[in-house]
Amino acid sequence: MKINSNEGTLGGSVIQINDNGNDQSILWVQHTPIAEGQYQPKPVLLRLIINTPLVQDLAIVNGTAIIAKVEINSFQAKGNNASKLTITEYVVIDVLSVSNGGESIANEFLLGGTVGKVEKNPNNAWMTVSLALQKSKNDPTVWVRISVHEKFATKAFKYGINKGDNLLIKAKVQTHSYEDRNQNRVVSNDFKIDRVLMLECRNRNQQANPTNTPAPSQSQYGYDMPTDQSMPAPGDYSVAPTDMYHELPSN
Predict the structure, then answer these.
(1) Where is the composition biased (Polar residues) (predicted)?
(2) Residues 78/101, Cβ–Cβ less than 8 Å
(3) Which residues constitute the domain of residue 143?
(4) CA distance readout (Å), 53 to 58, 69, 246
(5) Residue 5 forms beta bridges with which residues?
(6) CATH, residue 206
């Protein structure tokens, strides 16, 4: 069975609008997730691509709260010192709501595709799983990175997870801003699993987690949400190289 899903619902407050050319605009949207236990999450910073006429028709300005149905897209860009960078963006398919006096923290994705690399971090209990999303054979492949705690993996992937497996999950995106070794300003995009809907292992005719079985909560695993410093180091990025600094929010 082939699993294909690349869709989500995102929301937040618009903090900057830039022209992207070809009648498209970049909306920099930000929201602060609800705190979980002792962990105080940092704001999620998102790059949304939307048709400029729609921005004008809906009177979207800085401060507008927006909720939109999106698809994930990524492309290569040149950074400092001939570095290559991957920019991750969220293409607006449909605007679900706009408000100039409200607030939005929508953040939900249904992601399905083929597992690429599975890497364990030797310095902590986290692992990263790369997932290839392709809605149809004519669409380009979009890679996303999923951060998974080993205790979660033990429960959710009881038969293991390997390259070539098919995975379907509900997830939320998390972002982390920093400057890399080439002095590129980077916004990494990682996905945190809320629920594993299906795992079809390439080398065995079994599902590792039955459909409709929810993944246990963080507290059931006996660990708290990590601080930003303990999260695994990103391997690919959503970035703004030097020649794109003008697109970044100034604050």
Answers:
(1) 204-221
(2) no
(3) 5-247
(4) 9, 17, 22
(5) 112
(6) 2.40.50.140
